[in-house]
Amino acid sequence: MGRLTALVLGSAAGGGFPQWNCRCPTCRLAWAGDARVRPRTQASLAVTADAENWVLINASPDLPQQVRQTKPLHPRGEARGSPIKAVLLTGAEIDQVAGLLSLREREPFLLCATAVTLAALAENVMFGVLAADVVRRKAVVPAAPLVFPGGLQAQLFTVPGKVPLYLEGAEAESATETATNVGVELYAGGARMVYIPGAAGVTAAMKARMKEADVVFFDGTLFRDDEMITTGTGAKTGRRMGHIPIGGDGGSLAALQGISGRRIYVHINNTNPVLIVGSPERAHVERNGWEIAEDGMEIAL
Q1: Residue 153: count of CB within 10 angstroms of its CB
Q2: Angle at CA 47, nearest 5°, toward 3 and 52?
Q3: Which DSSP string do the residues of the chain spell out, in sequence order?
Q4: pLDDT exceeds 80 at position 173
């Protein structure tokens, strides 16, 4: 067995950065080619324990582009074959599952998620293109151990959040702990990594788990709770969307004090000023020991 290795395939929130229809202050810099910002695709992680067999954590709509840009994920064999052996989902949001439709060319892999997430996929006939005789689905109970090809081990755990936007009712809960929104803990060779791309809050159990990890990827969607409102790009607060902000009273930067491992914000919205190298918000985050994820970032433990 090798070592636990993760490749950040995408680091942005839904819509990517810059977002195709957005002229918020941060996107304007990207459209203008400003060197202080770098384009990002939608959040996904590729993880391995042996550098041969890879597991995707979420399948973003940008997955084909991400695979092309990531040599370890290129096809192998005489005709067809892929080192992607499994996809593990943290929820059923569009930016977490739409990439599955690009994996429909009858390549065997294991699709793992909680029962409620698999049910959401089953209710949409489009995901039937993942033929059942080729793509095996496994319902995962949070806290149950998972072992993937190559020796990678994982465990799902519940995280405060909400159901996917397209499944919301009139009164959507945005801070409950259910199997609709989970984080992932990954293990190999004595190393430990936690990936939480979406969280409406931080519980004591989550923080305890993160304190034991060598690396933590955490939801960095918005810097300020009212960011979408003040930039004129939306009408909801971050918490209403199921995302705790980075800054401010009760933000993740304050809530996660005391975590000593490597800490990286991921799933960053196009409006978030931490995307700008040298911005006051970016400097504040970095002074507190956090990094901002970029596409192509590699973590080897």
Answers
A1: 15
A2: 65
A3: ----EEEEEE-B-TTTBTTTT--SHHHHHHHTT-TT---B-B-EEEEESSSSSEEEES--TTHHHHHHT-GGGS--SSS---SEEEEE-S---HHHHGGGGGG-SS--EEEEE-HHHHHHHHTSGGGGGS-TTTEEEEE--TT-EEE-TTS-EEEEEEEEE---GGG--SS--SSEEEEEEEEEEEEETTEEEEEES--S---HHHHHHHHT-SEEEEE-S-SSTTHHHHTTS-SS-TTTTT---SSSTT-HHHHTTT--SEEEEESB-TT-GGGSTT-HHHHHHHHTTEEE--TT-EEE-
A4: no
Does any domain span residue 24?
Answer: yes
Is residue 169 over pLDDT 70?
Answer: no
Overall average pLDDT of the 142-156 stretch: 97
Question: Domain holding 209: CATH number?
Answer: 3.60.15.10
The answer as to whether 112 is a domain residue is yes
Could you tell me if residue 182 is inside a domain? Answer: yes
Strands 176-188, 153-161: pairing is antiparallel
Read off the pLDDT of residues 250-265 as tens digits, 9 standing for 90 and up. 999 999 999 999 999 9
Query: In total, how many domains does the chain have?
Result: 1
Cβ contacts of 14 within 8 Å, gap of 6 or more: 42, 93, 94, 95
Boundaries of domain holding 226: 5-294
Does residue 300 lie in a domain region? no
254-277: average pLDDT:
97
Task: Assess contact for 245 and 225: CB atoms under 8 A.
Answer: yes
Q: Is the pTM of this model over 0.85?
A: yes
Is residue 112 scored above 80 in pLDDT? yes
Beta-strand pair 145-147/135-139: unpaired
CA-CA distance, 240 to 294, in Å (whole number)? 26
